[in-house]
Amino acid sequence: VQLQASGGGSVQAGESLRLPCAASISSRLFRLYTMNWYREAPGKQRELVASISTGSGGTTDYADSVKGRFTISRDNAKSTVYLQMNNPKPEDTAVYYCNLESPVAIWGQGTQVTVSS
Predict the structure, then answer these.
(1) Predicted local distance difference test score (pLDDT) of residue 89
(2) Structural contact between residues 113 and 8, judged by C-beta atoms closer than 8 angstroms
(3) Which of 26, 33, 48, 115 is the most exposed place for a label (fewest CB within 10 A)?
(4) Partners of 70 in the beta sheet?
(5) What distances in angstroms separate CA 30 from CA 20, 46, 78, 82, one per listed residue?
(6) Are 115 and 13 in contact (CB under 8 A)?
(7) Low-confidence residues of the chain, pLDDT below 50?
(8) Is 106 in contact with 99 (CB distance < 8 Å)?
């Protein structure tokens, strides 16, 4: 399984960004897995940003630091998970990774997001 994250870039604080992550598996399999977005800022440990559980109306969960600003969603038909970043702040600057939650962790290659004030 491969995960391809994209959509990163350099934005001003408050300028929205959407990160898609496409999985190289069928939609039938994709819908069985919880999907996560993590981020890793320079000098900091990788942290969980958002999760969405299985099924078409997956339950979502967020880190306190992004609650109310970021939204995770999934399109099982496209085997894709999204992270909508609204009102990003400079402290959101990091490499963002998508993750397929399984006994053997599967990670995408990461996409850089830089937010300037």
Answers:
(1) 97
(2) yes
(3) 26
(4) 85
(5) 14, 24, 9, 14
(6) yes
(7) none
(8) yes
